[in-house]
Each structure stands twice: as C-alpha cells, then as structure tokens.
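Whether sequence alone determines local backbone shape is best considered at the level of individual chains. The sequence in question and its structure tokens are set out directly beneath this paragraph.

***
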Amino acid sequence: MNVMKRAAPPKPKARKNTEVNVVFEDKAKDMVRDAMKAQGVTVDQLTERLALIGVEMSSGGVANKISRGGFSSAFLLQCMDALGVEVITKFQ
C-alpha cells in the first residue's frame, strides 16, 4: 500500500509585533495611564481597587502589564471599572 504524506501545515505568523498591534497596545496603555493620572491614582492604588472587584494581582504585575501594553481587553475593562471610568459596551 502506497501512503501519501501530507504537507505540513504552514506555521502561523506571530502577530504580536505587527505594527497595527503595537499602535493599539500603545492606545490601550495610554487609556489606563490617562485615567490613572486624571484621578491621581498610583499603581498601588489601582492594584487595591482591582482587588476590590476580584482581580488579585501584585502591584508589580499590574505595573508590568501596563508598561507592556499587551494586556487583554478584559484587563483593560477591569482597570476602567476599578477607576470608575464608564465604558459603553452596548450600541443603541
């Protein structure tokens, strides 16, 4: 019996460092930083506020996420909620 070999699937390209991702990660990072600055909230205070809504992280972990900018949309929304920033999530 002659068995044909399948070609290997193409390797996915890393999208993390694409220009468009970098631009939007910077925007997300700026949103969190601007909201913190507007309220005079430090990373330690944001960490405490996040804990109040059930997000348990160290201050260092929060600072690292914000400085990288490559965090999830869930983390962005959690920060906005912890900072009391209303984010419209429904279209009317």
Observations:
- The mean pLDDT is 89.
- Residues 55 and 78 are 8 Å apart (CA to CA).
- The radius of gyration is 19 Å.
